[in-house]
Amino acid sequence: MAPLPGAELVRRPLQLYRYLLRCCRQLPTKGVQEHYRHAVRQSFRVHSDEDNPERIQQIIKRAIEDADWIMNKYKKQN
Known about the structure:
The protein has one domain (10-76). The protein has 3 helices and no strands. The protein has helices spanning 13-25, 30-46, 53-77. It is globular and about 40 Å long. The N and C termini lie close together (9 Å). The model has no long low-confidence stretch (mean pLDDT 90).
C-alpha cells in the first residue's frame, strides 16, 4: 500500500484529518481500520488546542510519515 496521492497537498489540520481517515479506509481489516481511526481521532483531540503554526506543520509532517509507515507495514503483511 503506497501512500495516498495528495499527501504533499496537506497544509491544514482538517486536510490532515481527512487524509488520515482516507488512509484508514485502505487498511486490510475492519478491526485494524477502527483501531487507527480511533487513534487519529484521539490525536486530534489531544492537539486541538495547538496554535503555533510551526508546531502544527511539524505535527502534520510527522503524521504523514507515520501513516506512510503504517501503510507500508500492512502492505508487507499481505
